[in-house]
UniProtKB/TrEMBL annotation:
Protein name as it appears in the record: Uncharacterized protein
Pfam families from the UniProt entry: LRR_8
InterPro entries in the record: Dev_Immune_Receptor, Leu-rich_rpt, Leu-rich_rpt_typical-subtyp, LRR_dom_sf
Range of residues in the leader sequence: none
SMART domains associated with the record: LRR_TYP
Coiled-coil positions: none
């Protein structure tokens, strides 16, 4: 399995996911955990450094902490739509300088500080209110 590039675990009723399970998948570029029952997003380990696309859409995630994605420096797409999100820590995307697509629609944000997007200059944000906004 060390050469695995894509892993689809969608629609499996997964309640929690330990990133230890993928720590030795050093070539993993696409991880789909959509349409499960995950409530928390734990910090992704350093072994996830090649991950480019992470799909956590349509789960039950309420909050994204400041270190959840800190080791995902190659991430270009992050799909978080259809969760119960109401909070993203201002530092949550600090290390995602390659992030181009962030899908946040169908969540429960009251407000979303622009500080969240400071380190992602190439970002294309997709939401119902702001269909296509590029932050530069």
């Amino acid at each position: 399995l060390p050469n695995l590039v894509s892993l689809d675990l969608s629609r499996n009723q997964i309640g929690s996911f330990s990133t230890i399970l993928i720590r030795n998948l050093n070539n993993l570029q696409y991880l789909n955990l959509s349409s499960n029952r995950m409530k928390d997003v734990e910090e992704f380990t350093e072994g996830s450094s090649c991950l480019k696309i992470l799909d956590l859409s349509f789960n039950h995630v309420m909050r994204i902490g400041k270190s959840a994605f800190k080791n995902l420096k190659s991430l270009t797409e992050l799909h978080l739509q259809g969760n119960w999100l109401s909070y993203i820590a201002p530092e949550a995307l600090k290390y995602q300088t390659n992030l181009q697509v962030l899908q946040l629609n169908r969540n429960y944000f009251d407000d979303l500080p622009l500080k969240v997007f400071r380190s992602v200059p190439q970002l294309l944000l997709v939401t119902p209110a702001l269909q296509r906004v590029t932050f530069r």
